[in-house]
Design goal:
About 50% of the residues are buried. With about 725 residues, this protein is mainly β. About 5% of the residues lie in helices and about 40% in strands. The protein folds into four domains: about 25 residues; about 230 residues, Pectate Lyase C-like, CATH 2.160.20.10; about 180 residues, Pectate Lyase C-like; about 250 residues, Pectate Lyase C-like. The longest helix is centred in the first third of the chain and has 12 residues. The protein contains four helices and 67 strands. The chain starts with a helix and ends in a 10-residue tail after the last strand. The strands form five sheets. It has a 25-stranded parallel sheet that branches. It has a 17-stranded parallel sheet that branches. The site of calcium ion has 5 residues, from strand 21.
Length: about 725
């Protein structure tokens, strides 16, 4: 009612202003209908006039199928709202249908229930009565899931025209069907000009099947219809349902200024042409399967976007341009024709795929397409995947730091220097006529959704990395000042550490883009990990000088919590004379829940690399899982891994071991694994090396040994179970 008071005061001040007086009179006549139950709701609904509010009393509304129908005006919409925003919970078997025009729905929380229909919140009452000029704002849908994952529905389904869905909080969908759909299956819904903005699309766990999209605009049958839907400044966080975060299946939509944060999947131009993806921010933060944009179909535009740390591949790369099907039916893949990909920044991305999907059916490569003024940096020497004839893509004025990017006809700038600007995004320090524009203003998380419904806690807020310049004392000081979730970015130089860096928090230490800093331990380990440590090392080279002590030591002296370690693109070699300490070892009382290693290159190593033997610990073991992939070990006396546990006890999950996609050359002892519960040794190339000895546990998971190439190396064998010695796995 304070609204009215303000307007009353205003109208005295501006008494001469007739227009305001008229507004005042209308406002004063507008009524609030506070309703306590479904009957009161139904009784009040027909009375609603422009400017009226139908107010749901605070509390839980269980098993309600609400229809909100009315005819407001642009100046005087009719509201359906919570008495107090956030204090009205719709639960049980419930849904909401909206029809009419100039309506607003506000402040409701859909929680602890599910829809009896395929549309939880439907912008139509039935096939005759649609919603137009309706705003759905500041509402929550939180895990309002049908009981069975394969039962399909969508939470918000837009029909009609000129509707707006904004500042909502949509989180936790675990059953089949996109969280939000725009439907175009009726004349009343074509060329709809819907606006979807400032919503928070939170965690959507992986569905494990098709239908896990967070958003879908149209379907293939209606994909040649223009939708003119605008998806503007939304925050997509951990939207991991499936490979399509947004599945665009209609024409002339605009997806702009959104943030995609650690979301597995891509924005996909699945069907329909003439769409635009511009000024979006993709932060992958090195999370697997984080993708960017996938282009299919004609006249699609991708410009002024910013992509960083995306690790997706193939159909889900930072940028994927697909092959089409000649004369494709609507539900297959139309050839890319007239695409424009320009002025995007792709930093530290794993893959770009061109002509992806090329096969006998998808034989039409992209044509009339321009890829220009983009900047691409990557640590992956196989950055660009070319799967078909790409002569139909004109590459112009691109910049890259990666030789492999010659496919992009990019000017290769070695040691391309990037600096994080105030908007949190990287830009080259010298002027290049390429990359995303400087005036991007990434939507901040708190600007999405609403303040009264909390977003999940995030230990790692987006924050600029702390630059550490070239020497050990700067690194030690930076670590002292660091708080949990910080990122220390080391520039080139040799960091001769006089004492170990002690880590007991979430921390990332990574190389500045284009640099290869070297860390050397002088008197002991370079790094000591304590309980609670979640250390992520990326892009650093370690030089081992110590004859006995490890480079990294899990140092807990009594077990008071696990640690985890992630190594990515790490080099290690020994500069010690006769022997050297391991790369990683552990005290008997430390425990890692996971050690993940990707892209570790160890060369000239005189001893064990991972020394995590559980021998003598009476069944206790030192790491639950040790996963190594895409790595190289050459001239290592070994073992690469000494890992396992004693005894026959079956009460533990691990230890689990995986070594895949790696090259092992001149390694005397490849592995010493005892009491292993899970084992995968696959797609490795083993040359001039020793046998792999594995001892399985009685109840161990199936062992996988496949796709390896052994050259001048005895074939790997499982030497026994629980102490028996017999050979039973053959390559
Ligand atoms: Ca899909």
């Amino acid at each position: 009612m304070s609204d009215v008071k303000i307007k009353l005061a205003s109208s005295f001040v501006f008494i001469c202003c007739l227009a305001l007086q008229v507004l005042f009179v209308k406002d004063a006549l507008a009524k609030d209908y506070l309703v306590n139950n479904l009957q009161e709701y139904k009784d009040s609904l027909p009375k609603l006039k422009p400017g009226d509010h139908l107010v749901l009393a605070d509390g839980v509304w269980r098993d309600v199928k609400l229809v909100f129908e009315g005819k407001g005006t642009e100046e005087q919409p009719i509201y359906l709202r919570a008495e107090t925003s956030g204090q009205v919970q719709i639960s049980g078997v419930s849904n909401l249908r909206i029809a009419g025009e100039h309506l607003v729905v506000k402040g409701l929380v859909f929680k602890d229930g599910y829809s009896p229909t395929r549309e939880l919140i439907s912008f139509r009452k039935n096939k005759k009565h649609y919603a137009n000029h309706v705003r759905f704002t500041e509402n929550v849908v939180d895990a309002f899931n049908k009981p069975n994952r394969q039962d399909e529905d969508s939470w918000i389904v837009l029909h009609g025209k000129n509707n707006r869905v904004d500042h909502n909080h949509i989180v936790g969908k675990t059953n089949k069907g996109p969280s939000l759909i725009v439907r175009l299956n009726a004349k009343q819904s074509e060329e709809n000009h819907h606006l979807i903005d400032h919503n928070y699309f939170g965690h959507r766990p992986t569905l494990g099947g098709n239908g896990g999209e967070t958003m879908r605009i149209g379907v293939s049958q209606t994909s040649r219809i223009s939708s003119y839907t605008k998806i503007f400044r939304n925050y997509f966080e951990h939207c991991n349902g499936e490979v399509e975060i947004i599945s665009n299946k209609s024409e002339r939509n605009t997806i702009t200024e959104n943030v995609f944060y650690e979301s597995k999947g891509s924005v996909v131009f699945r069907h329909g042409g003439h769409n635009t993806v511009s000024r979006n921010i993709f932060f992958g933060n090195g999370v697997d399967d984080t993708g960017g944009v996938r282009v299919i179909n004609n006249d699609q535009k991708v410009f002024d976007n910013y992509f960083e740390g995306l690790k997706g591949q193939k159909f889900n790369a930072g940028l994927t341009i697909m092959n089409g099907v000649p004369n494709s039916p609507e539900n297959r893949y139309h050839q890319v024709d007239g695409g424009v990909i320009r002025n995007n920044s792709f930093y530290d991305i794993a893959h770009i795929g061109l002509g992806v999907g090329s096969d006998q059916e998808r034989s039409a490569p992209p044509i009339n397409t321009r890829f220009a003024n983009n900047i691409v940096t990557s640590k992956n020497p196989q950055l660009v995947g070319v799967f078909d004839d790409i002569s139909g893509i004109a590459f112009e004025d691109n910049v890259a730091d990666n030789k492999n990017a010659s496919t992009l006809k990019a000017k290769v700038v070695k040691n391309l220097k990037l600096k994080r600007a105030e908007n949190g995004l990287l830009y080259p320090t010298k002027k290049l006529n390429a990359g995303a524009p400087k005036d991007l203003k990434p939507l901040r998380r708190h600007e999405s959704g609403m303040s009264w419904y909390p977003k999940p806690k995030r230990s790692e807020p987006v924050r600029p990395a702390t630059a550490v310049n070239g020497n050990a004392s700067a690194l030690i000081r930076a670590l002292e000042l660091a708080s949990t979730g910080d990122i220390l970015e080391l520039s080139a130089g040799t960091y001769d550490l006089p004492s170990p860096l002690k880590v007991s928090d979430k921390l990332t230490i990574k190389a500045a883009v284009g640099d290869k800093p070297v860390i050397r331990a002088i008197n002991g380990p370079a790094i000591e990990l304590f309980a609670g440590a979640e250390l992520h090392l990326n892009g650093v080279r370690f030089e081992q000088a110590n004859p006995v002590l490890p480079v990294i030591f899990a140092a807990g002296y009594k077990y008071d919590g696990k640690y985890s370690l992630t190594l990515e693109n790490i080099e290690a070699s020994s500069i010690a004379k006769e022997s050297n300490g391991p790369f990683l070892s552990s005290s008997a009382t430390s425990f890692a829940d996971a050690i993940r290693v990707k892209g570790l290159n160890v060369e000239k190593w005189k001893g064990a690399v991972f020394d995590l033997s559980g021998q003598g610990l009476n069944g206790w073991y030192l790491a639950d899982r040790l996963h190594i992939s895409d790595s190289t070990f050459s001239q290592v006396s070994g073992p690469i891994v000494d890992f396992g546990r004693d005894g026959r006890d079956e009460s533990t999950f691990g230890p689990l071991f995986k070594l895949v996609d790696s090259k092992i050359e001149q390694v005397k002892n490849v592995a010493k694994l005892s009491g292993i519960d899970g084992f995968e040794f696959a797609d490795n190339n083993v040359i001039d090396s020793g046998q792999i000895d594995v001892q399985q546990r009685v109840l161990g998971y199936p062992f996988v040994m496949s796709g390896n190439i052994f050259e001048n190396t005895p074939k790997a064998g499982v030497i026994g179970r629980d102490g028996d010695t017999f050979n039973f796995v053959k390559e």
